[in-house]
Structures are given as structure tokens and as C-alpha cells.
């Protein structure tokens, strides 16, 4: 298993230093799982769960911290992300990142494993590049904005300003303000309330496994049900007694579901 590394990626007229980790790159004849983290995630916040999934499936893995997160280039304090930031990540950053790593996605089509914002980015990538992906695994994805989502993001803002949440997040990000406010500001902006990727999801053609906790505090089951209504090959997997992070709340059950799905791909 490779150590965490940094690579320069040209994106949006900038050169960014992106933190990443390759898991078992020697398994060149096995599928490549690419893990896309949540709105406050990073390589470190995944902990060892991606490695465990790759071990169960004997696959390769790629884990990375998006711009503004982990040990990647931080977001300047004056830079405010716009509602289409996830589109930019999927349609512009990810192709540039794959190219920097010399990954040919037309030949070596990855399986994307996304959580929350990362799941939405994975859905957008699959819709934009249908011939450059084998399958999708999305955990607690966002297709549209719900009142409960905004209410809980507002609670996160209050906690960040009044509790030890910044110190806790500092375990996972070199610049905590970059990670938190980049995510929190855009989600709480008035212009984000109309955000939706429902039309894009209708363009997805690859197999999809959509996982969600029944007690997800950031979204109702309408989020994954919306994928099944629009895309042709979707399996839904709802986990009881599970909130927004299935891989943390129910790691074994989530891993088993993913392993069964990947093994079932032709």
C-alpha cells in the first residue's frame, strides 16, 4: 500500500497540490475504486475503510482530498464557491486529476465510491463521461436541497463557532477554515436552495448502487429514490439505525453491500 502523496494538478487556471493515496496499485488487472469524500471529508477522514473495501474485493483504490481539504491546497479565505462547484469538480477537476496520475479512464474505467457531496460529484461525473466509468456506488447522495439538510448545516455552523468542532476537524485538515467555510458558505447561500442535479442523473447509464441510512439527518430517502426513478440500472440499499455516514455507522454492512454489488458487475 502506497503512502499519502501530493501531486500537482492544473485546474481552473491554477496549479493545485492534491493529496492522494494509492491502495494496492500492483493489482493492475483488478478494478480501480475511486473514493470521493463528503463536504467536510479528506483522505484522513476516511480512515482505513477504503483499504478494508479494497482488501475484501482484492481491488486497487485511489483516495484523495479535494481542493480546500486535507493536505491539499487550501481555499483562499476570500474565495467563495458557487452553487455549481460540484459540477466543476466532476467535469473539470476529476479529468485533470486522472490525467496528472496517468490514469486512462477510457481504458481503465473506474468504479466511483462517493459519500454525500462526493456522491453527487460521482453522479455528475458518470452523467458527463458515460464511457469512462464502470459503475457508481453512492452513499447519502444529494440530488436536490431539502429543508432538513439546510437546518443541519446551520447547526454545524453554530457548532463550529461555539464549540471545539474546529479542533476536532483539525485532525483531518491542515486548514480547517478552508474546509469548513468553503462547504458551509455555499450550502447556506440563498442561491443554492434551487440547486438540483436531477436532470443530469437522468443521463447516467452505468450500474448504480445507492446506499442511505434510514435516519440520515441530511436528507430523506427521496434522494436515492430519485436516482432509481431516473437512471436505468439502480439498486437501492437502505440501512436501518444508520445516519448520514453508512461507512462509519454500519461499516461491515456497507462493505458487504458494496462487495456484492461489485462482484455482480459483468
UniProtKB/TrEMBL annotation:
GO cellular component: membrane
GO molecular function, a single term: hydrolase activity
Residues annotated as domain AB hydrolase-1: 33-256
UniProt keyword terms in alphabetical order: Hydrolase
Pfam families assigned to the protein according to its UniProt record, in alphabetical order: Abhydrolase_6
InterPro entries listed in its UniProt record: AB_hydrolase_1 (IPR000073), AB_hydrolase_fold (IPR029058), AB_hydrolase_sf (IPR050266)
This protein's name: Alpha/beta hydrolase
Source species: Advenella kashmirensis W13003
Amino acid at each position: 500500500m502506497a503512502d499519502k502523496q501530493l501531486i500537482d494538478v492544473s485546474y481552473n487556471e491554477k496549479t493545485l497540490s492534491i493529496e492522494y493515496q494509492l491502495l494496492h496499485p500492483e493489482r493492475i488487472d483488478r478494478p480501480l475504486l475511486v473514493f470521493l469524500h463528503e463536504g467536510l471529508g479528506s483522505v484522513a477522514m476516511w480512515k482505513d475503510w477504503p483499504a478494508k473495501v479494497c482488501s475484501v474485493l482484492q481491488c486497487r483504490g485511489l483516495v484523495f482530498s479535494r481542493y480546500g481539504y486535507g493536505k491539499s491546497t487550501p481555499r483562499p479565505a476570500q474565495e467563495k464557491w458557487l452553487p455549481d462547484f460540484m459540477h466543476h469538480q466532476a467535469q473539470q477537476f476529476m479529468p485533470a486529476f486522472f490525467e496528472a496520475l496517468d490514469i486512462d479512464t477510457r481504458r481503465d474505467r473506474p468504479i466511483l465510491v462517493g459519500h454525500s457531496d462526493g456522491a453527487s460529484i460521482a453522479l455528475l461525473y458518470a452523467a458527463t463521461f458515460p464511457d469512462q466509468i464502470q459503475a457508481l456506488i453512492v452513499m447519502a447522495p444529494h440530488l436536490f436541497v431539502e429543508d432538513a439538510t439546510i437546518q443541519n448545516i446551520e447547526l454545524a455552523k453554530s457548532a463550529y463557532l461555539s464549540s471545539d468542532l474546529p479542533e476536532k476537524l483539525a485532525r483531518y485538515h491542515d486548514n480547517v477554515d478552508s474546509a469548513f467555510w468553503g462547504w458551509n458558505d455555499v450550502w447556506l447561500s440563498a442561491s443554492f436552495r434551487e440547486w438540483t442535479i436531477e436532470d443530469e442523473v437522468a443521463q447516467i447509464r452505468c450500474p448504480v448502487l445507492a446506499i442511505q441510512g434510514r435516519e440520515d439527518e441530511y436528507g430523506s430517502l427521496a434522494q436515492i429514490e430519485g436516482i432509481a426513478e431516473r437512471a436505468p440500472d439502480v439498486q437501492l440499499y437502505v440501512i436501518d439505525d444508520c445516519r448520514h455516514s453508512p461507512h462509519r455507522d454500519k461499516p461491515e454492512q456497507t462493505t458487504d453491500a458494496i462487495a456484492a454489488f461489485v462482484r455482480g458487475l459483468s
